[in-house]
Amino acid sequence: MRTRLQNLSRWSRSLSARIVLLMTLAVLPVGLIAVYQTMAVIDNARALNRTSLMAQIRAEASKEEELIQNALAAARGLSVLVARMGDEACDDILRGFVEGNDTYILAGFVSREGMLTCSSRGEVMDLSDRPAFRTAITRGSATVQMLPAAAVTGRDVVLVTQPVSRDGVMLGYIALSIPHAIVVGQLDGPAPADGLRLAVIDSEGKLLAATNGLDEAPGFLPAEIGLADLPKRMQQTFRATAGSGETRVFAVTPMIEDTVLLVGSWPLSAEPRSDGPWQTVFAIALPVLMWVAGVGVALYGMQQLVIRHVADLRSAMRRFALGERDAAALALAEAPAELEEAQRAFNRMALLISEGEARREQDLKDKEVLLREVHHRVKNNLQLIASMMNLQARDLQSDEARHVVAELQRRVRGMAVLHRALYNTPTSTTVDAAALVQAVVTDVRDHSRTLPLPEIDTTLEPVDLYPDQAVPLSLLLAETLNTALCDPGDDRAPIRVGLSAVGDNHVRLSIEGPAGLSGARAGPRGGVAQKMLAAFLRQLDGTMETDQLAGRCHLTVTFPRASYGA
Asked: What phi and psi, each to the nearest 5 degrees, are found at residue 213?
């Protein structure tokens, strides 16, 4: 999980991620405008489709609408006549109206108390307990109701009522009965090719008429939306599952304002394409595709024009940093002018650095050869001086003079040993002190005149020293060993020499030998040796400790290891 977060964080800082962000910010306003405009077009198309559907169902139900409108108009006219003419002429007026109109089978006046006091049939009847009466009185306005097995006619009728008032006082209402078969017959014309089905309901959601009869209505009306809720969807189109289980498209529009509604039902195949759910998806998908295309082109261009060239440049820089100097010059294929400038600058830099390194390497080789030659010549000269001193010593008559010359000759040979060691390690600025100590021990032992010669055991650790410390160390060791060999003691016990590093910054030289190792030899020569040891210690900036134990002397020299340039 942590690795994923690290990779995500690294990618978020990449050039590609920033290009995606910038392209998103650039395209976002255009995308929002495109979505807004597309949605506006879709809304307009849906409004037109809704208007078209409403107009279609109004056209399909135009005959029924005309029938009900005429009935309402007739009821209004009769209400005025009845209010003015009084009860005497009421029966004659209503009878004449029904006889002159085949559409109606009954016309009557119902008082506020629910009494049918006047009718085209001359009957008097108490209707106060009928739901139709209560509905008409409660609304106090024109109503259209469906009455199965009406109380007066005994037939299925559509009842149209209109209040009758005189001087602002409601006297009752005029009721006109239209056979339900006539109303349904208006809807039973040839079925439209798009599968439209119609239903007529009143403002309370009661079914008045339907295509193919009331019994067929539940099959094409919404199953999950009650008829009483349909008036709440006035002037709307929507999808819902019909009673038959089929998903259909529905539209609700008023037939008679606040009185009768029309409900249209179509199969999904009749729905206009511009009103489908995919339109919203397309409205969003197109700007998204535009963004994807823009980001894709930007990333492709960035990859081709920048990233791949930067990757080649980075790879060349890495190889150059790792020491590859034989690689061909960097060549960026079809790079922009700015990156070509970077390419030329890198190639020029690589050329200058390579030439400089080649010159320094050649200078180093020349200096190495010169340094080796210097050490070789110094070694040879010191050996020549030692040989000349040896020749000179042969002509000396005094033992003391010969001894002095021998001491000088030994010291010259010690310096020659150091230069021989430097000559053998020309590529390093330091000397392996262990090898130098071993060489000094070997030289002192080979040129010693003490017989029998005691054993010299060495325990040496590799320690690198600069010549400034290697020279006094080798001379100090040679002087000390010479002192030990000149006075080996009676037991001829072995002499032990040790060299080790103490921590990271100090070096320890230890010598175990005869008891006379700690003191100067008798005579002037011993004083010279002590002075030289003191001088060598000062050069090493070290300390010397001596311990006498069981007739043996333990001498320890400790000094700090010098750093370069110190």
From this structure: 100, 160
